[in-house]
Amino acid sequence: MRLLKLVPDNTNLHFMRYRNIALAISIIVTLAAIALVATRGLNFGVDFVGGQSVRVAFVQAPPIAQLREQVDNLGVGNADIQESRQSAVQQAAAGNAGQANLVEYTIKLPVAQGDDAATSAATGRVRSMIETTYRGNATVRSVDTVSGKVSGELLRSGAWAIGLAMLGIAIFIWMRFEWQFGVGALVTLFHDVCMTLGFFSLTRLEFDLDVVAAILTIVGYSLNDTVVIYDRIRENLRKYRKMEILEMLDLSLNETLSRTMVTSLSILLALGALLLLGPQVIFGLTIAIFIGIFVGTYSSIYISSPILVWLGVKTSSFLPARDKISGPTGPRNERGPGQRPADDGAVV
Amino acid sequence: MLNFPRWKVWGISLICLVVSLMAVPSFLPANVFDRLPAFARAIHVNLGLDLAGGSQLLLEAETQDVAKQKAENMVDVLRGELRRASINVSQLGASNGEVRFLVDNPAQFNDATAIARRQVSQVSNFGGADWTVSVADGRQVTMQQTDAGVNEGIRQAMENARDVIDRRINALGTLEPTILQQGVNRILVQVPGMQNPEALKQLIGRTARLEFKLVEVDAAACNTPRRPGIQYLPSDELPGGQCMGVQSRAMISGEQIADATQNYDDQNRVAVQVRFNVQGSQRFASVTQANVHRRFAIILDNRIISAPSINEPILGGTASIAGSFTVESANALAISLRSGRLEVDLHVVDERSVSETLGKDSIRSGVIASIASVVIVILFMLITYGRFGVYTTIALILNGLMIIGIMGLFKATLTLPGIAGFVLTIGAAVDANVLINERIREEQRRGRRLHDALESGYREASTAIFDANVTNVIAAVLMFYFGSGPIRGFAVVLMIGIVTSVFTAVNVTRMLVALWVRKARPKELHI
């Protein structure tokens, strides 16, 4: 049986040749993402702005305008009502199960005027209005009510968590590798997080607590590729001390390319199944991780590696101190400890 | 690397078997599950509210009231103690959490100070005293609460609040609530199966501080200047802006209530009947005896529900409270009174409820998606790595079972984001295997012989596996630390998944490869 090889043997792509073009594109897109978030903002869910969000499933859906008027008449603020997304697969599943095709609306209301008690009371009013007006037709599927105070805390703690995770990982990389690698990891993470935020700003998908969890996941997982590549660069730095740094980076990227492709594709396939078939309540979480893994694969090649060059990493940068001192004394130290002669030049 | 002694093979197999078996109870339908022995039933994954359906309320306590309340209690205690010692004082009162009074007779000043000092207690071994007593001018005594005292008061009030909430929810029927304190002044209440939390909110939102006080002024403007010993409270029986003046001192308070039930009064109105304890009955009898034809106010949470006249001494030790009640609201009040009053006001700051049908839909589509993702990833591994793909598949399935098994062992909660975490872990769990397999391919390309290629494949890949997983652990730990309910569920799955995927990749597949190499003695590796 012939096995699938996503990346043919002895692939030798010259990634670093295009590093400046890639950098220019990355900077432009990152700046565009930041500008987008700064001007258009994010479509924050109730988790972060407070207020309430009520999901109602209707057997026979009333016009949105009618429902909005009924909610507005309660005097609990202006309602924003939208039909929830439902994938074709889910609709087909409902059809197969012989269920009537329910239409789901999400009613969003801002934080009520007054105190927390007012917001809490407003929830009860909307729920009882729907349950009496549309008796037998509508079911309240979920209600989220968040006070202004808690939403502020959630936003702050979410931002803290993301910031600390980025910093913690950068410090870990710094300790395991060298400071240049730590900076590279931090810049890569910054790029990945900006891209994800930009995507959410562009698509107006709701940005809630789940998405923060997704970004934290991205911070962990999108860096996997980077770490694996860094690990290989470190190994090759010890092996090939005479090689040009750009050549060495290309070699490391090509050596790990197959693994990068297989793992990323495997994660994207699994998440793809979740996007198409999974619960639509966590669509935002899943799409965020999906985008993040995709972006992370790109950035592990075109951001985290070339940044080492710009930070002045050379093949001779990380010789152990004793090697530097005793370096000229003999060819014995040309190879790292434990490396067999066969390693040298086997691929080069 | 490929040298696996027999005990190691048995050890790894045993761990895999036991941990995988622990996943079984979580998959069984309810009727089979109920027949399992107790130890097996203890091992199962809990479903979060977003999957099981139910309500969750995050309550915040008004802790600034605690110090005030404590000061008012101190005033009551001091008044009693000073009277018993026949010491006359004036201007005894509390303001800003401070208690102060003037001793009328300077000769009794030392006795009065001693009484004040006797009320001070130690908060804990290291916490120091809860009050400080200071004196001035030879007649003024001031008691101030220390920070330790205030904090201890808050701690006790929150403990009381948890108990009271527990009793009130239990009165609603056979629910299995989880009541947890979060931080200093918050309580998280989760009630699986409760779809509409309005009744719960009504129950919890009421302090249920019931007092009986004698009426001094039938009606007056609410902003009437305060006279010592009299307070003005709004009343259900008066129009807005009008208040009733009542004695500050309560003739009976909630602590003296033994029981409360909903019933009907003699005019067939919905009412709540309260029965006093022995001390309360005696006091109620003596006060009503001494004040026939006067009115007394029934005050709930600083609002007068009704103010009936005392037509004759009430000696039975019961009182009927009639107001504008419905049967439901009277019942709720009775429950609140029975369960004791809350020492702090609570209000809802975060409320989530999910219907059972949405939870079921989420579980169904989550399970379908999980199975689909496992199948796709397995197919992908098989066409990419052939025989080694089979080993990866075995590791993958074991990994999935072990995640559920470990979650079951620790009674971890599976939430909706947790399902996403599971799928992500399935996709990412192959990473360790991929790293190893790719490394073996690479070593072979370099002309290594089979044994060498396998050996160095596993060895060289291990540092990358370690480093790559530590970054995931850092992110997951922070997510757990900062996250709330569902997000924590996600973080838990990620963390367990990281551990199990590394274990299965590094130990299980390696063992399978080692056993195969030992048995088949292949000349070349098709990978």
Please provide a written account of the structure:
The complex is a heterodimer of chains A (348) and B (527). Chain A is of the alpha+beta class and 348 residues long. Chain A has 12 helices and 6 strands. In chain A, helix 1 packs across helix 7 (179-203), helix 6 (148-176) packs parallel to helix 8 (209-239) and helix 7 (179-203) crosses helix 10 (283-302). Chain B contains 16 helices and 19 strands. The two termini of chain B are 18 Å apart.
Task: Label this structure with key terms.
heterodimer, A: 348 residues, alpha+beta, Multidrug efflux transporter AcrB transmembrane fold, Alpha-Beta Plaits, four-stranded antiparallel beta sheet, two-stranded parallel sheet, elongated, B: 527 residues, Hypothetical Protein Ta0175, Chain: A, domain 2, Gyrase A, domain 2, 16 helices
How would you state the average pLDDT of chain A, rounded? 82
- What's the number of extended β-strand segments of chain A? 6
* Helix percent band of chain A: 55-70%
The overall pLDDT average of chain B reads 84
Give the CATH architecture of the largest domain in chain A. Up-down Bundle
CATH topology of the largest domain in chain A: the name is: Multidrug efflux transporter AcrB transmembrane fold
- Biggest interface and its residues per chain? A-B, 89 and 83 residues
Largest sheet of chain A: 4 strands, antiparallel
Instruction: Give the structural class of chain A.
Output: alpha+beta
> What's the CATH first level of the largest domain in chain B?
Mainly Alpha
Q: Note the run of SSEs of chain A as H and E.
A: HEHEHEHEHEHHEHHHHH
Number of helices of chain B: 16
The level 1 CATH classification of the largest domain in chain A is Mainly Alpha
Q: What best-fitting shape of chain B do the alpha-carbon axes yield?
A: elongated
Radius of gyration over C-alpha positions of chain A, nearest whole angstrom: 26 Å
In what range is the share of β-strand residues of chain B?
A: 15-25%
